Amino acid sequence: MLYAKVVLGIPVEGPFDYMVPDTLYKKLKVGVRAWVPFRNRRMLGYVVGITRKTNIKNLKTIGEIIDEAPILDKNMLSLTKELSGYYCCSWGEAIETALPQALRKGRLIKLNTLNLKAASGKSAGLGEVFLIHALDENEGWDRYIQAIKDTLESNKSVIVLLPDINSVLKAQEIIKARVKANLGILYREQPRELEEWVRIKEGRADVIIATRSGIFAPVNNLGLIIIDEEQNDVYKQEQVPHYNCREVAFMRVRIEKAKLILGSAQPSLESFYLARKNKIKYIFIPRTRAFPEIKIADTHYLYRGPKQKNAILTKYLEDSIISTLNSKGKILLFLNRKGFATFASCRYCGMVLECPRCNINLVYYFKDSILKCHYCNFKMQPPTICPNCNSGYIRYAGLGTEKIESELSRLFPQAIIKRLDNSKHLDINAADIFISATSIIKETQYSFDLIGVLIIDNSLNRIDFRAAEKAFGLLIGLLRLTDKKIVIQTRLLKHHCFNSLVDKDVSIFYTEELKQRKQLGFPPYKHLAIVKLRTKKEERAKEASNMLFNKLKKYKTKDINIVSVNPGQPSKLRGNFYWQILIKSDNPRKISRFLKIHLKDFSHSGIIVTVDIDPV
DNA sequence: AACTTACTAGCA
DNA sequence: GCTAGTAAGTTC
């Protein structure tokens, strides 16, 4: 008698053994999907092993075997297994994140694997990893193209990952123009997702260009993975399992003996640290264009004096704008914020308008005359009377791009000023001064004559150990948009973010930031994990998370530090209350193993517990 | 995750 | 004794 070991896409470890009638022996292979009876349901499972003996009594018989050829090969099984051990999910859940939706639902496919290129003998990369730190986008691409060509030459395939669909399409154009290859394009929500997946599985594409989930592209003889903008946090999945593409790429190139290239103008501290430690190879490509002049403008005195109450420009930046305008130059003013005002409040009773479903202030959009929640996208008409005290004095305060637009038109009536929201393409002739939030950084190729960073301190002052890294990333992004001059307004004059830019040496930032992370015991020196608890009732969330916190503390080992229990951020989201427990360790796999054991017997009705390893 | 069973508190 | 609510256990 043969038994199939089957895993399921639910948070239960498994695998579960099933009897296989001899009529199905021929169809039974590791890596195929099968329908199995489970409790009193019929579920889709994945055969991860075949065995002749089992210790389980009262076995059930496997239902239907769906696939003729395995949809998961040995490498993909190893990868998903490893992923489940790192990110604290079941093997089945890991498999399901690696597959297109249609396959998870049991859709039938026909695989024609006859034409598969035999895996060539020599392995291209041996698990080597490179960090290409290129301040100049094009230089980075030259390296990518060369590596792709080399890999194709040795008869191996390539996966190129980009943060978003736009970048995928751009990369497709670049690669199509410079490399002769069969391209495969993969991203979730692509209408042809399954079709493309099958094409790749059949070996009919050798350069796969994709977003995050493309890390699981079913290529047969992988030689190279490229992750562009490796620091970008979209590579981290927001749903469970919260895997990070970069980490999965490390696993995959080790398993398949391929090469990995991480590319960025602003590498993550994690990758930079590995490079410093010589764990991965580091290639720094300095900027070939002129490095802009960088000026720090002190905003300490900005708000002094009754007439300057609402001033948003330092004298220095104002003068720079005037002289740039005089020489017919183009100006970009940047701030990390959207909307007209950051919040709306009642002048009479002081109540701040909040989202009814989240613990977050609503943001006022002047042009559309609407109040919006940035978290859950709740929208409402601005009330004319205060919902709390019925007075008619709702006031809008704080600075957003819309507010700045109106301020600037007052200051520079002769200039044409344009505010860029999430608009597609920037028409440089449309204005003299452009005002924008973060969206600009990706969108334009244009080089401005002056960039004014109006507000960056809010990004630096956030209670997030990655605040400086993110702010620095923004500034490096802006650097791409000028060769001439950047004026940064700040109160934090001595911050290493700015020192690094003023001295035109990005390593200053990394050295100082690493030093601080080390002192505080944060990544990349330690791994973090967050256990999140979610429920409709505020009190229960608090109670249950405290109980869990104490329980985890009781069982903790010396390698695992159960740090704190706190309300989530935000503490209320879409009508649910959040609490979270923070854990630190040198080894994320140990956290995962620890939590798998101790979360299993923690059940409180109505409370949903999730785990995020290496949160971003 | 989904479902079953066990236990507890409140109530006529 | 009954029910509702929740805690705890199980799934091949």
N-to-C CA distance: 48 Å
How many DSSP H or I helices?
17
> What's the helical proportion of residues?
25-40%
Strands of the largest sheet, in order across it?
8-9-7-10-11-6-12
Mean pLDDT: 91
Care to count the β-strands? 27
Task: Please give the largest β-sheet.
Answer: 7 strands, parallel
Structural category is alpha/beta
**In percent, how much strand structure appears in the residues?**
25-35%
Shape: globular
Report low-confidence residues grouped into runs of 5 or more: none
Radius of gyration: 27 Å
Question: Could you give a quick summary of the protein structure above?
Answer:
The protein has 616 residues and is an alpha/beta fold. Helices cover 30% and strands 25% of the residues.
